[in-house]
Design brief:
Length: 489
């Protein structure tokens, strides 16, 4: 008892250390070390990069793959079938993301990460060996179902470091994914059909000649196998407390604290149920914003890859898969330079959240110019398309980083696995719709180049831009409270 008959209440935020708990051990290490955990961040970056490479690596050669699988009856139908192959991964991930989040909250982030990387090694390789349209669909679906890394890795990035470094941790996840989403297609563009592009290195009788789309998948799987080794050094961040007596004391202390929180002090809700998270509007509004911008980005990349390699008679750019790979490789290097050299200064002076709206506005204005690039030729086309693609990916990386930080600051640590699982589920649903819808719209646009108030290609990019405009509008009240989000971050 304290003076005056008051019950002595433990200080808020004080945590009891549990021997043998990896989460407690990491917390102690973070207390004694105030620096940035460069090694852990590097492992996160590598693992996240390699797990993301397969997601969109197929887009530069998907047009040719569908053509060779002979599922499309006419050229204009290729985009229709390509859209469903692109969508399968995301639709499968829709069903598995919340279970993976629950798994990560119960058994740890590290096991979830390792299983996800192993699924990339197996099913991405099998996709490259696809001999039929349905084999391609099934292997992509299994890859999406078993690669449950996205939610846990975002939670992990905020837990492996001190609070002041969390923005950097999320930025690394976002930047590695952003880079992978352009490097992956670059690998696909350069390495698909190697017997045709590099006949001196690959013969038509070799496995890479008989399976022209196997080499990019094989290279990505080798990189994923290497990153699986890096997982050995990843520390576990989840707290495992098996001492029931100590936990009973902690619960009793929490009840005493709750009884003392009066006079306007907010009572924290420790219920980690999915139902409670769905009622957390700060989280759900951030998740919805994230989903809308992800829908836009995925539809854009699907459309860009199909449009860039399509014929000039359909107002495409008539580029090769290697040209598309070059464009995306330049974008990937540019995003990396931006994240390392420019973004830290942006965060220092404006914060990680404020650039969201300006980046969305600039992205919308940039995409308006895309249909007119079909009027350009040779050198000027390649210069402008590289600049436009680089800027588009920089804006996307800025928006995605802000959305990820908004989500992870809206919940407590013990809820982040499930919260990110919910986010990935909804995002995967949106991303699953995006390639299918973009493929259908692309096929429709090629069949309606004339006779409408606008050419089909302009309507195509206008529809994609409308998604980003909706996302921008939802960053304002009453849907989203930016000032409250800035205080939390």
């Amino acid at each position: 008892m304290a003076a005056g008959g008051e019950v002595a209440v433990p200080l808020l935020g004080t945590k009891r250390r549990h021997d043998g708990c990896p989460g407690c051990r990491l917390d102690e290490a973070n207390k004694t070390s105030t620096g940035i955990p460069y090694r852990n961040f590097f492992y996160i970056w590598i693992v996240c990069l390699t797990s993301t490479l397969p997601i969109q690596s197929l887009f530069p050669y998907l047009y040719f793959m569908i053509r060779d699988l002979k599922i499309a009856k006419q050229e204009q139908d290729i985009g229709f079938y390509a859209g469903f192959v692109g969508a399968t991964y995301f639709l499968a991930r829709t069903f598995s993301s919340v279970p993976w989040g629950i798994f990560a909250d119960k058994y740890g982030r590290k096991p979830c990460i390792v299983i996800s990387i192993l699924s990339v090694v197996v099913f991405n390789t099998l996709f490259g060996l696809s001999t039929s349209y349905w084999m391609a669909i099934v292997t992509r679906g299994l890859l999406g179902l078993l690669c449950g890394i996205l939610g846990p890795i975002k939670a992990y990035a905020t837990e492996v470091c001190r609070k002041e470094h969390q923005a950097l941790g999320i930025s690394l996840v976002t930047s590695s994914r952003a880079i992978a989403l352009v490097i992956g297609p670059a690998i696909g563009g350069f390495l698909a059909q190697p017997a045709e592009k590099y006949p001196n290195l690959f013969s038509k009788e070799s496995i890479f000649g008989r399976f022209p789309y196997f080499l990019p998948s094989f290279v990505i799987s080798i990189l994923a196998a290497g990153s699986c080794i890096a997982c050995i050094w990843l520390p576990e961040t989840l707290h495992f407390h098996d001492d029931e007596k100590v936990e009973a004391i902690d619960a009793l202390e929490a009840q005493v604290i709750d009884s003392k929180l009066e006079g306007g002090k907010a009572k924290e809700d420790s219920d980690t149920s999915t139902k409670n998270l769905l009622r957390n509007w700060q989280l759900m509004s951030a998740v919805i914003l994230y989903c809308i911008f992800c829908l836009h980005d995925t539809a854009y990349l699907e459309t860009f890859s199909l449009w860039a390699v399509s014929s000039r008679k359909f107002r495409g750019l008539s580029l090769t898969s290697q040209d598309v790979g070059t464009v995306l490789a330049v974008s990937g290097v540019g995003v990396l330079v931006y994240q390392l050299a420019v973004y830290p200064f942006l965060v220092k002076y404006f914060g990680a959240i404020r650039p969201l709206r300006p980046a969305a506005v600039l992205s919308i204005l940039l995409l308006i110019t895309y249909p007119f690039m079909a009027n350009l030729q040779e050198t000027e086309l390649k210069i402008l398309i590289n600049i436009a693609s680089l800027l588009k990916n920089v804006f996307s990386a800025t928006i995605t980083t802000a959305c990820n930080i908004l989500q992870n600051t809206a919940v407590a640590q013990e809820q982040r696995g499930v919260a990110n699982g919910i986010s990935v589920t909804l995002m995967s649903l949106f991303k699953g719709v995006a390639p299918a819808a973009a493929g259908i719209l692309f096929s429709w646009a090629q069949k309606h180049m004339t006779g409408l108030f606008l050419p089909g290609d302009q309507i195509l990019f206008l529809m994609i831009n409308m998604v980003s405009i909706i996302g921008l509008l939802l960053t304002f009240k009453p849907f989203f409270n930016m000032s409250s989000a800035l205080r939390r971050s």
